[in-house]
Amino acid sequence: MKTLSNVAIILSSMMMLLPVTTHSVVVESNESYIKSATFLSEKFEVGPGKIVVKTLLDIEFPKGHIGVKSFDVEVVDEDGKSVPLYETYLHHWFAVKYIENITMSHYIKQSHDLRNGIEFERNDGMCQGFLLPHYWGLGGESRGTSSNLPDPFAIELGNPTKVKDGFKEKWLFSIMVIDTRGAHDRKGCTECRCKLLNLPNYFYNVTMGINGQLLPRNYKGGLFCCQDNLQCKLRNGFNGPTRKLSLRYKIRWVDWNEHQVPLRFYILDSTDRVRSNGSIPIHDCQAEYTIPRNHDNDLPHVKKANIPMIKGGYLIYGTAHMHTGVINTTLYGQDGRVLCTSNPKYGTGKEAGNENGYLIGMSVCYPKPGYIKIKDGEILTLESIYENKFRTGAMGHFYIYLADQLLNKDSTI
Predict the structure, then answer these.
(1) Has UniProt tagged this entry with the keyword Ribonucleoprotein (predicted)?
(2) From CA 192, how far away is CA 222, in angstroms rounded?
(3) Which secondary-structure segment (H or E) carries 188?
(4) Per-residue pLDDT tens for 220-253?
(5) Over the stretch 59-69, which tens digit does the pLDDT of each residue have?
(6) What pTM was computed for the model?
């Protein structure tokens, strides 16, 4: 068993190619120049306590040279009904860009061999290797977190001059969902606590961590214990049906023209242990962390990282990807000024999108264009604050979109 193949955040699970059976639900455009389309991913099967970690390749995506304005995702059942988090918890979904060798497409589809013919194109974030490579992605907070980008800004995609000859731009989903129906400890199950999962006896003898070494025996929980097809321990006598679910995702975009201003997208990680090799920063992101038991005080748990930005820009959008228990997350400039604080919203009901006690949204910063500028080489401080309670698999990811200019230099406006 190779654990890394089951850790979606590292995306090594892409070595297993799934059938491509996505279906478009509806295509529409409003009265202005913004277009939108809603799609369904291929189905994946869940059952009580079951964990699903999948890579869904070649998802449907708008064609042509476009500027994406928003990308929103939720989990739905076979009838298109939204699934509440207390039934199936959306740990995360990531949308990742890759290019595929056109001459290899048939071979890849038939052989499920991704070692040749595919190149992945990550975001502008600084984490090492292929860690946190996605352009869009959240978790249980997806329904309540805005992804809209204000005019005239957008993420430029499909520029034919930027795609290598003989290659085609494509997209995939990397997902982790956890069915908590009947789980002995529903909250612990969503945190991927190892002792609450039916792990094989040889788990710690073969499972590799983020550093490529065997997981230590004191690893309490997180991504490496949530592997595809494993199951959270269930209450005695609980039985429930399996069902097939999908991701329903809506993308809004514009056809690219001289009036659009491109954005760069960064993912910053509060676990990033930055060191330097001379003048070159070396990033050592861990992607997740454990908040230890602490009975001495009620002060919140704080995780900080000081992250140098080689290339700065105007801040256009900011938000955080966090987990239940978060108090807030703040990004500071080198001089201590607050660039953006993302605050959580917790549910109070039973309906999907308002699940009681669950994190259902994170606030978004929309600074007035030109009001906040990050300088080249500026060292930013990311501070993630959680309740001081034992927690495994905590995350502190901050998403920022930066613009080099406020109007397109080629615009005639």
Answers:
(1) no
(2) 5
(3) helix 186-190
(4) 999 999 999 999 999 999 999 999 999 999 999 9
(5) 999 999 999 99
(6) 0.91
